[in-house]
């Protein structure tokens, strides 16, 4: 009987920010119900030529494996298995061997009628399902590009039938909905047409040793979206994609206990982003030992719908951010913490108890800490933070980016740290270093309106031009 690792977060949280640094995730082992049954999709008729659909063979193998009490469904190496949506079941683990690829179909009829279930691989109400094997699941995202544009590709939208509205109607790659004890490891998720790995109302998910690649110029190809899900551990991931890389969202319920550690990320959007769907709370997140390279934003919170954020730690993170085309949200902020009402029907949530410790960043713009009238930023702490400001591109600066919604893009003078509607910011050993530039407003350490910013405390703070 296989052993499924389940990581539980044993954060000893307290409202006091000084104790936030003490939390560390602990691990606990639990037996899963996964049986030892192993089947190969080839034995169920899969041809693996990348042209003919293997959907029925794959589904038959999964269903029989599930009926036998669970086990592994193997995709032998050296072949491409083209498929419409397949449904993963409890205690079944897909084993895509190194050198094998599952290819997602590129026709609308390859996906279910309900657009909320447009995934290449989908599990729903499953316990102990998983994906591994060293191989690849590929969404053939390039087939969804209508027009290539190095600023931002134009994508197809399957919105003609009304199954889905707007311009974001494309299938996701892998989805787990209402599932427990999911484990995804040792797998490459490649070229999603839309979001890549999506958890919806899941509990106890372990994701480790995975790589995600999305087209750098395509929108909405998020890395991992953790929606309305609790107790998620992500470790040893490599994510290189156009849109947000690790992105918790709350639409129908809160997100509790998320840790992401030992990751490498490059994105034309935010490396880490809470929101923007933020109807419910985000609590107890821990991000540690992460490298963020050449990204549009580093650590982000885009709270827009009234949910509150509490008890978040970012530690040991190295960041480089730069400007990209302004059609992408982001203004090269290494740290971007914002809450404002999306529109006139929305509330602003609050963001409290956020610790940044051992962070070093090189960026073209400053950190942006922006609460709003109804939603304060409370109790933020920067400890051992080195911020280096260096201009590397020719994109103009001088804009605050409140998108989506809120005030949109607003011309504003830049600063090393920009603040508004903040109550409680502790600075302990923060060094700003400015590499000379002719940009307007360069070398301005702090930009804020005192009437909205309270309880600032500075210990060992240096700003220096070299
Ligand atoms: C979050 O983790 C803590 C510590 O392990 C645990 O006590 C709590 O029940 C978890 N929360 C949820 C919603 O599972
Ligand atoms: C999942 O469970 C819910 C609640 O029990 C049920 O309404 C839904 O039909 C189930 N979905 C599937 C695909 O089994
Ligand atoms: C359908 O998608 C196209 C292309 O993105 C977009 O221009 C159009 O507004 C969308 N139509 C509807 C009804 O959502
Ligand atoms: C997550 O935990 C919260 C708080 O206990 C709970 O309200 C919510 O239903 C949980 N979500 C899931 C998917 O288990
Ligand atoms: C921050 O870095 C210092 C020096 O490397 C280390 O001793 C300390 O444990 C780190 N703090 C955290 C919270 O990781």
From TrEMBL:
Its domain of life reads: Eukaryota
Q: Where is the signal peptide?
A: 1-16
- Span of domain Rhamnogalacturonase A/B/Epimerase-like pectate lyase: 39-94
Keyword annotations: Glycosidase, Hydrolase, Signal
Q: Which GO BP annotation is one of this protein's?
A: carbohydrate metabolic process
User: Which InterPro entries does the protein's record reference?
Assistant: GH28_Enzymes, Glyco_hydro_28, Pectin_lyas_fold, Pectin_lyase_fold/virulence, RHGA/B-epi-like_pectate_lyase
Example GO molecular function term?
Answer: polygalacturonase activity
Query: SUPFAM superfamilies in the record, alphabetically?
Result: Pectin lyase-like (SSF51126)
The UniProt entry's sequence similarity note says:
Belongs to the glycosyl hydrolase 28 family.
Q: What is the protein's name according to its record?
A: Probable polygalacturonase
